[in-house]
Amino acid sequence: MWHSSFFSISFCFLFFLLPHENNSSSVNAVSVDLVNTTCKQCASKSAIFNYDFCVTSLQAVSISHVTNLQGLAIIAMELALGNATSTISTIEKMMTSGTFDPFAMDCLRDCVDLYADAASMLVSSIAAFLQEYFDAANVLMSAVMEATSTCEDGFTEKEGEVTPLTTENYNLSELSGISLCIINLVVSSELSSMSS
């Protein structure tokens, strides 16, 4: 697939962000605490941020237990990318199922385009973050969140239309929000270290 090589590249970079310590149990304790602390910080900044979703998503990736804040940002963006590409497949299956009326089919076509754009923006966001172009990564992640809203809103234009992608839109929006928050925490952390 088009993004598979990028997964390898970004995880290669992720290796250099890992703390190099001999005591694996202390690394795990620190990293689990990092996930919890990071998710709490993000939840305190937004009333719509889902702390439980954040913790569950990040802790499900084993490498998150041995990483730092920069690595956590990449993990969150990688999760969002995986979600977006998976949703493209889901939408394509829906479109060939023959169970949707012409209006819903138009909405699904719009959504598959939006998700394809979102996947591309996520790849660009990871690349921008790795090159420390944090403003660009921030803008791209915000655009991904907007794509999920646009997909969801398309179905509501027809009264009584059931949105079949609510869960997918919510998940990508949350993962993008987690990524966006961690990017901003990385920026704050770097600014603090420069001023001290």
From TrEMBL:
Claim: Disulfide bond is one of the keywords in the record: yes
Signal peptide annotation: 1-24
CDD domains, sorted: PMEI-Pla_a_1_like (cd15795)
Residue intervals of the Pectinesterase inhibitor domain: 30-182
Entry keyword Thylakoid: no
SUPFAM superfamilies: Plant invertase/pectin methylesterase inhibitor
GO cellular component assignments: extracellular region
SMART domains in the cross-refs: PMEI
Source organism superkingdom: Eukaryota
Alphabetical keyword list: Disulfide bond, Signal
Official protein name in the record: Pectinesterase inhibitor domain-containing protein
NCBIfam families found in the cross-reference section: PME_inhib
Family: Belongs to the PMEI family.
Organism in which the protein naturally occurs: Ilex paraguariensis
InterPro entries hit by this protein: Invertase/methylesterase_inhib (IPR035513), Pectinesterase_inhib_dom (IPR006501), Pla_a_1-like (IPR034088)
